Structure formats: structure tokens, C-alpha cells
Amino acid sequence: MTAASPSQPHTPIPFEKRRFRTAAQHYLQGRQAYAPALFGRILQLTETGPKSRVLDLGCGPGQIAIALAPHAGEVTAVDPEPEMLRIAAENAAAAGLEIRFVEGSSADLGPAFGRFHLVVIGRAFHWMDRPQTLARLDGMIEPGGAVALLGTRDPDLPDNAWSKPYDALIERYAADDAARRQHKSPDWLRHEAVLLDSPFSRIETIAVLERRLTPLERFIDRALSMSSTSAAKIGERTAELTAELRAALTPFARDGMIREAVQSSATIAWRPDR
To answer: Residue 250's CB: how many other CB atoms inside 10 A?
Structure first.
């Protein structure tokens, strides 16, 4: 029997607690929402129900926690950015949901949080020390439990013709951001590779593809919701970026709306002995 090849070495992105302090106010308006059908499949595949404890790690403004809370027994949501937690708590209260919000990061994980059936991480895993986080979660996830990594992307389809000029502008304005260069590097290990070398090496990926109409102005929020092109990061260039984005995207808009095809996905990982 041939031994598995070791994973490539990698260096975690240095932690910066207030990285999203100005991005938070643009996040819900700008970032693509996860397809509702995706949550149904996650709940089904992970066998998460009314008695299950769920942890949303790197919860941001709480989209995932709020979507799962009506179907779970208890939800805890953790994020290092106070402004993200403020927005998340307000939205949870408006929805009549009881969610425990905790200021902290993956480095704070430990027995004090208790045990969970499902841990979800959306658009935040690359900011963590991924092997260390999964090792900590191995002591916190109950037998049969799972980790789910959620994300959205713009597949290469005619609906997403707007993405090339949009991405080009983002790359230009984010060129000085070392963290972005690191996780966009060809040497950066994909999440799946990290999972395969972790205690959670049984992996299944699911995806939902939707066509949407999105106001042009939401694409500007999307840019400002990214830490590498947030107002705090690019400062006086914010107005310039906003103007360039509006000019670049106007040809793709009709009555102020842009059509896009959005793929919402989840990579779900269990221990191999499940």
C-alpha cells in the first residue's frame, strides 16, 4: 500500500482583527446571497435538525447563522469584527431569532464553546490557520458531525460577461494588498487539499446555479465589501474606484439592473469513519 503524499507547506495569512471594519456596512448589500436551496441540502446531508448545535465561524453579518437558526436547536456565531457582529445581531433580532454572537476568531476555539454537530464557514476559511482550525474543530465536533465550507462564484457563462472588466478593476485597486496576493497565488493550497490532510477527509461538494438580476449599485457595494478594496484600505481612491466601476458596468445594465449567474456551493467534510 502506497503512503499518501504529504501536503505542501503553506503559511497562514497574518491575522488582522479590524480588516473588515468599513467593509461590514457594504457586505449584505454587495455580496452575493447564498441560494436558499443550498441550505436545505446542507441540512439534509449533515442530518442537522431541531436538536443540533451549529457553529458559524467567521460569521460576518450573519447570513448563514440566520438561515440555519430556524432549523437548528442552537446557533453560535463567531467573528472578530465588532461591526459585523452588530449588524448580524440586529438582523437576527429583526427576524425573531435567538443566536449567540461571540467576538473572537478561530484561534479562540476551545472546549468552552462546547460540542457541535455542524460547523459552517462562509468566505472566511482562507483567513484562518486552516490545519490548526480543523484540528481544534476535531475536538469540538461530535461523532457524525461535519464541517461545511460555503462560497459563491461567477461561472464563466454569457450572463457573467460583466465580470471581466469588474475583476480587472478589482485586481488593479487591490494590487498592493499582500493578503490577497497570498491567497490568490498559484502556490496557495486549495481548501480541499487541506481537508484531505485533516481529520475531516470524507468530502462531498454540492452547488446550486441561479440566474439573478442585480442592481448595478450593488456591484459597487460588492467592491467596498472586500477588505482589499474597502474604504479603509484604499482611502482617497474610493471615489475613483466607484466611478470607474460604474462606467465599466453601465454597458451591461438594463434599467439599472445587471443579469448574473451565481453558483452557491458547499464543501461538506466528515471524519472518514462516519
So the answer is: 11
**Is residue 177 included in any domain, yes or no?**
yes
Place of cell 490532510: 197
CA-to-CA distance for 149 and 191, rounded, in angstroms? 9
Q: Number of structural domains, the chain?
A: 1
How far is Cα 76 from Cα 273, in angstroms, rounded to an integer? 26
Residue 148 lies in a domain: yes
pLDDT tens string for the chain (274 positions)?
Answer: 333 334 345 689 988 888 899 999 999 999 999 999 999 999 999 999 999 999 999 999 999 999 999 999 999 999 999 999 999 999 999 999 999 999 999 999 999 999 999 999 999 999 999 999 999 999 999 999 999 999 999 999 999 999 999 999 999 999 999 999 998 999 999 999 999 999 999 999 999 999 999 999 999 999 999 999 999 999 999 999 999 999 999 999 999 999 999 999 999 999 998 6
Cα(66)–Cα(87) distance, rounded to whole angstroms? 12
Question: Phi and psi of 67, rounded to 5°?
Answer: -70, -35
Which residues form the domain of 241?
24-270
With respect to residue 5, please indicate whether it lies within any of the assigned structural domains.
no
User: Does 4 reside within a domain?
Assistant: no
Contacts of 1 (CB under 8 A, 6+ apart): none
State the CATH number of the domain containing residue 170: 3.40.50.150
Q: In angstroms, rounded to a whole number, what is the distance separating the alpha carbons of residues 79 and 149?
A: 16
